[in-house]
Amino acid sequence: MQAISLPRFGGPDAFALSEIETPVAGAGEVLVRIHATSINPLDYQVRRGDYSDLVPLPAITGHDVSGVVEAVGSGVTAFKPGDAVWYTPKIFGGPGSYAEYHVASEAIVGFKPAGLTHLEAACLSLVGGTVWEALFTRAGLRLGESILVHGAAGGVGHVAVQAAKATGAFVLATASGYDADFVRGLGADVVIDYRTEDYVAAVNRETAGAGVDVVLDTIGGETLGRSPHVLAQLGRIVSIVDTSEPQNLIEAWGRNASYHFVFTRQNRGKLNELAALVARGQLKPHVGKIYPLAGIPDAHAELERPRNGVRGKIGIAVVDEATSRRD
């Protein structure tokens, strides 16, 4: 099979297109013919060596799969050849999704939502699981609460806005003025142009000083550091960004706030919850740009570029029909 391998850490040019042996499904595993994958910030962090201790080289990286079951190992009962499936490969636990085939434990695999193409599903699995973990498992976002989503036009952010609205939350979001209409179209009640307006002042104005119940941080740095200033009492901050910077814990303490730092975990339950939102028409991933498998180096370079202008996700069409098949 063809795969994009990583023989060394470095820039996008570190990748190499390789021909390697197709894996075989073992006991409790499924072999999936990958139709689509996508690019995440985690992917370029792995590629440049941020997690070098956890990624032995050479490696096949990538963290989203949508495809069709090719074969199943002994003991598999949930799936059969021909089933359309989606999942996030085990992070730091073996080969990833930048290839034509992938083997995974049936425990982390779900049936692909019928209303999504393979490309759309591949642009939802990791970010959708991250959003579910952040908003519901960790922050416990509830009907009638309010949330501020930082980076609302991005991969995680655009899913978070939709998921929060589906819960019945009042959604405030930060985005550039260029992306404001896109974010409103996702369901945001208030969009704050972070380039022209201080988000702390804007949130406090929009909430009459009450603040928001939850902040979802996808940016880190000063954006995360100032987030306690917009929290209501008993508010929750959830960040998906690893950070070594000191946090404003005195401000958070005064508001009885809690912090949650999320590194998503794989399970079928989250995929099923996301699929239910898709089926109800409350969630649809946005594919901002598409590359072929061999174009992964270019896709990495584009996503890693600051202010790249890509809304939603960058998808990788591993097979040509990935953009049109919904079976």
Ordered list of secondary-structure elements with their pairings:
Elements: E1 2-6, E2 16-19, E3 29-39, H1 41-48, E4 59-60, E5 65-72, E6 84-87, E7 101-105, E8 110-111, H2 118-122, H3 125-138, E9 146-149, H4 155-167, E10 170-175, H5 180-186, E11 190-193, H6 199-206, E12 212-217, H7 221-225, E13 231-239, H8 249-254, E14 258-261, H9 268-279, E15 287-292, H10 296-304, E16 313-317
Parallel strand pairs: 9-10, 9-12, 10-11, 12-13, 13-14, 15-16
Antiparallel strand pairs: 1-2, 1-4, 3-5, 3-7, 3-16, 5-6, 6-8
Helix pairs in contact: 3-4, 3-9
Could you explain the architecture of this structure?
The chain has 327 residues and is α/β, with parallel strands linked by helices. It folds into two domains: 2-124 and 285-323, Medium-chain alcohol dehydrogenases, catalytic domain (Quinone Oxidoreductase, Chain A, domain 1, Alpha-Beta Complex), CATH 3.90.180; 129-261, 3-Layer(aba) Sandwich (Rossmann fold), CATH 3.40.50. 27% of the residues lie in helices and 26% in strands. It has helices spanning 41-48, 118-122, 125-138, 155-167, 180-186, 199-206, 221-225, 249-254, 268-279, 296-304; strands at residues 2-6, 16-19, 29-39, 59-60, 65-72, 84-87, 101-105, 110-111, 146-149, 170-175, 190-193, 212-217, 231-239, 258-261, 287-292, 313-317. The strands form three sheets. Strands 3, 5, 6, 7, 8, 15 and 16 form a seven-stranded mixed beta sheet that branches. It has a six-stranded parallel beta sheet with strand order 11-10-9-12-13-14, with helices on both faces. Strands 2-1-4 form a three-stranded antiparallel beta sheet, with no helix packed on it. Strand 15, helix 10 and strand 16 form a beta-alpha-beta unit. The longest helix has 14 residues, at 125-138. The radius of gyration is 20 Å and the shape is globular. It starts with a strand and ends in a 10-residue tail after the last strand. One of its GO terms (molecular function) is oxidoreductase activity. This is NADPH:quinone reductase-like Zn-dependent oxidoreductase. It is found in: Cytoplasm. Its main location: cytoplasm.
